[in-house]
Amino acid sequence: MFRPVKIDPFYYGDGSIRLLTPLSPAIHLGADKICAIGIRKIKSSAYTQKINLEAEDDEITIADIAGELLNAIFMDTLESDIERVKRINKTIALSSECKKVDLGEPSLRPIDLLVIEPSQDLSELAAQHYPKLPFMFRHLLRGIGASQERGQDLLSYLSFDTSYTKPLVELGRKDAFARREEIESFFSEKSSF
Questions:
Q1: Pairing outcome for strands 112-116 and 33-37
Q2: Residue 157 burial (CB count, 10 A)
Q3: What is the distance between the alpha carbons of residues 128 and 178, in angstroms, rounded to a whole number?
Q4: Mind giving me the DSSP string for 77-145?
Q5: Do the domain assignments include residue 7?
Q6: Domain count of the chain?
Q7: Which residue segment(s) compose the domain that 104 sits in?
Q8: How far apart are CA 27 and CA 6, in angstroms?
Q9: Those residues with Cβ within 8 angstroms of residue 112's Cβ, 6 or more apart along the chain or in another chain
Q10: Do the domain assignments include residue 10?
């Protein structure tokens, strides 16, 4: 979706397009600690059920579909990989035999994982700043069904205007400072396993 960037002789692009297990390369290269930064505020299953029961959408717009597709490309793989690493860590912790058995290359080992996620839903943040976005951008989005009330996921991916990016950066800064001690501890200590 985004143009690859050339650094020295190589081009680098967003790896999430083809990478279904984003933590896997780091693990295969020998990482014992991984800091994963997500862009979705994880909602409880109760909240998800509530909003699905309350939803009264008469029709689904192209903007709604595009937002869901972008979520699938950029977020779902990271979340499932984080869940997989946590499950493997728990299995290893419960089974002392697992630590003794070589299961091939690379062998199973616990991974110290720090997951950082926004404290606010980014699609809701984008919707709050929708009226401040440039008129032509809003006009184009309206053509595919996006508005302040609809297509917010798509809006959160495509809004590169400072009316959205400044509050987005500020949210990231606030969230990092709220977890400052945990982050500093993660990067200063050896693996806890």
A1: parallel
A2: 20
A3: 23
A4: HHHHHHHHHHHHHHHHHH-HHHHH---SSSPP---EEEEE--SS-HHHHHHHTGGGS-HHHHHHHHTTT
A5: no
A6: 1
A7: 19-188
A8: 25
A9: 32, 33, 34, 186, 191, 192, 193
A10: no
- Any idea how long the chain is? 193
Tell which residue, 62, 76, 72, has the closest CA to residue 150: 62
Q: Does residue 62 lie within any of the structural domains? A: yes
With respect to residue 164, please indicate whether it lies within any of the assigned structural domains: yes
SS3 of residue 156 by DSSP: helix
* Location of structure tokens 């299953």: 45
pLDDT digits (tens, 9 = 90+) for 99-137: 555 555 556 788 999 999 999 999 999 999 999 999 999
Are the C-beta atoms of 92 and 109 separated by less than 8 Å?
yes
Structure tokens at 2: 């985004």
Q: How far apart, in whole angstroms, are the C-alpha atoms of residue 30 and residue 37? A: 19
Please write the tens of the pLDDT for every residue from 66-84. 888 888 777 778 888 899 9
